[in-house]
Every structure is written in structure tokens, then in C-alpha cells.
Amino acid sequence: MDILKGYKPENVLGYFEQITRIPRGSGNCEEISQFLVDFAKSHNYEYFRDKLNNVVIKVNNKSKHRRFRFINTRNPTK
Q1: pLDDT band at 6 (very low <50, low <70, confident <90, very high)
Q2: What span, in angstroms and rounded, lies between the C-alpha atoms of 32 and 53?
């Protein structure tokens, strides 16, 4: 852990480092999906997870709503 410590922006790279440690891939998306749900909950963001473990996180911005979509499907579209 902390391989990227000291690099900027530290907060974003910290999340990246956490994500790289989560096993994921085709048919193996439960853990990354749960990580995203936990992230949304810890930041009081609205989120939705479907039965395929796709996660949509809605982040309120002062000027407008921004939506981020993290796709964790077994068969990504081409």
C-alpha cells in the first residue's frame, strides 16, 4: 500500500490504488461493485446497483448534477 504516496492528486491516486487490489474481470464483479456502493454510501451520494452489478453514482455539484457510471458487466459492449 501507499506505493503512490506523494504523487498528485493524492486522493484520486489513493482510490486508484485501492481499486487495483480488488479482483475483477469478466464474471467477477461483485467486489468492485460493492467497493463502489460503499464509496457512495461513505460520501452520502445517491447510487443504484442493478442485478448485473452495474453501479451508477449521482454526485451533487453546486452548479449542476453530474452522473458517473461505473460499468461492471460480465460482457462489456464493443
Answers
A1: confident
A2: 9
Please, what is the end-to-end C-alpha distance for the chain in angstroms? 33
Cα torsion through 8, 9, 12, 16, rounded to 10: -10
Neighbours of 22 (CB within 10 A): 15
Tens-digit pLDDT profile for residues 33-71: 999 999 999 989 999 999 989 999 988 766 555 555 555
> How far are the Cα atoms of 3, 18, 59, 64, 76 from residue 50, in angstroms, in the given order?
33, 23, 18, 25, 15
CA 35, distance to chain mean position in Å, is 6
pTM of the model: 0.67
- Beta-carbon contacts of 9 under 8 Å, excluding residues fewer than 6 positions away, are none
